[in-house]
Automatic annotation (TrEMBL):
Keywords: Ligase, Membrane, Transmembrane, Transmembrane helix. This is O-antigen ligase C-terminal domain-containing protein. It comes from the Bacteria. It is a multi-pass membrane protein. It comes from Aquitalea aquatica.
Amino acid sequence: MMIKKITAASLLVAAAVTMPFLSWLRYAPLPDWVSDVSCVLLLAISMLFSLPARDDTSLSISTVLLPILGFDIYLVMSGHNLANATVLIAVLAFIFLWGLLFSIRLRAGDREDFLLILASVIFIFSMLQVVLGLLQVLGLAPLLHGYVVFDPVGANSNIIGNIGQRNQYAQFLSWGILAACYLYAKRRLRKPFFIGSVFFLAWLSACAGARLVWAYALIFAVLGWCWSRQNKAETVCRMSWAVMVAVVLMVLTQLFSQQIAALLSWLGIPIHVVSGADRFFSAGFGIRRRIEWTKAWEIFQQYPWFGVGWGMFPAQSVEMELTGGLPKYPESWLFVHCHNLFFQLLAETGIIGVLIVFTTLFYALGAYFRKGEQSAENLLLLGIGGVILAHSMFEYPLWYLPFLGMFLIVLLLAPVGRVMLPMRAAFVRIVGLVAMLLALFYIGTGIATFRTMVEYVFPTPNVQENVRRMGALFDVGKNPLWTNDVDIVLANYLIPSREQLDLKLQHFSRLAAYRPYPEVLLKLAVLYALDKQMTKAEHTIKLAIANYPDYAPNFDYRLAMMKKEELKPLQLITSKAAKAYVDHGVQTDPGRIAAVMTVASPVTRKPLF
């Protein structure tokens, strides 16, 4: 029975970090809710099989769990902008309690069995993602009635699997490559099938156009070389050899992706993909990331100890785009994250938050390099951890629960010390069951809430129906776990007018401090103008143009349609920006820059890097 429980828990945990990526249910305003909640569901069910035995008197956990709890407590005690951190606090609390049971249940003797299951599940689901990627490469995804995600603009050129984003897709395929290497080392994959599967995983990574694959290959090569020198055991040697083969295939498919495409076209299978190598040599890693890193650094300098507050980077970034004097590379979408884990934590949680997180990372990941820890299992874990961390330096995969769950597994299984829990097994069982039931309750009630949000995301022409919908949304918004998301949807219903002006100003001001989307800024500017706060109104409309220049003609048209005397100063600003945008080219970089420069401060400095 004990073995069956461990196996069931292992399968559920492995499924939690892989299966959600297959989800095609991506709907506004929360396109990732289904995949995230699927991860929570599977982890919650796994807790039932991870409960300690009633008579267990030696409950020990990984020391990595302690700073996770510490960071959660820090977010609560820091106090400012607590509303934005509510969901994260709840998620970290759940993860801590799940990790507690997982760490207790997975003792040293069960570690290898768990990793064999984990590697097998990762490999299976990565190959399923390969199939989905091939359907996209061949242009067949649009024919499958929405069950395969695709980019309407580039259905056969933007290869994203069902994960929905090229870099996340390539990262997951890189997990699959490492899993294949581990299964080969454990003699669970024969050499021909190993080489063939790794080729497809590497080639689809190249088709995705993710430049970070080069970093992943370098990480694998360095780790494989280090492990081969430190441990001469047969399994480690087999895995080191497999990793080197994988690195070669990753590099070759990147360098010769155009030749592979030409060969397929000659065979009558035309494809239109761009590899990460092509994108890297043509555009490097992108100036816009470096600009956002610079903004995060300046926010940190203003709020060094505790940061500006969780979730507050977007509003600060939008303000700096207008007044910061940084180079102009507008992209007309909101940067909710600066695309670097270190800088993001510096900006939003300050030195204290960074010390908690990165001290833990150095402690846990560094333990894998200690003498005598160079096993095939640790190579698998550290390789995956290295991939996630490298990706986190250029994007934010840890803001998605399956990636966060996988990274937590890497940390919890690190060869670090353990601490004894000074409590009875019965108490731990009760706490675990309560946490599981609360998670399941959230999911059960959340499904209905999510459906309401999706159905009501945009208003109808019927005024009475819209009033009814707003009432339902206000009721949903009373739950602090849904408040911010509901506020964003309500913004689509609230018309900027003099009726209930104070309440509307309060609503849109709060939204602009959290998610300053173009619609939010436009309506807030109108409300300020109607309230005769013209300085704020003009500043807000300038924020909108500086950050979303592609919307400048739309802003100008909508202000003109409102036909209100108070809005004429705003129209002067939008009409000038719209004219510059059209004159220099619609949907072009010169057009965007021309519109931005009608309102923004001139460029006076360079980004950090």
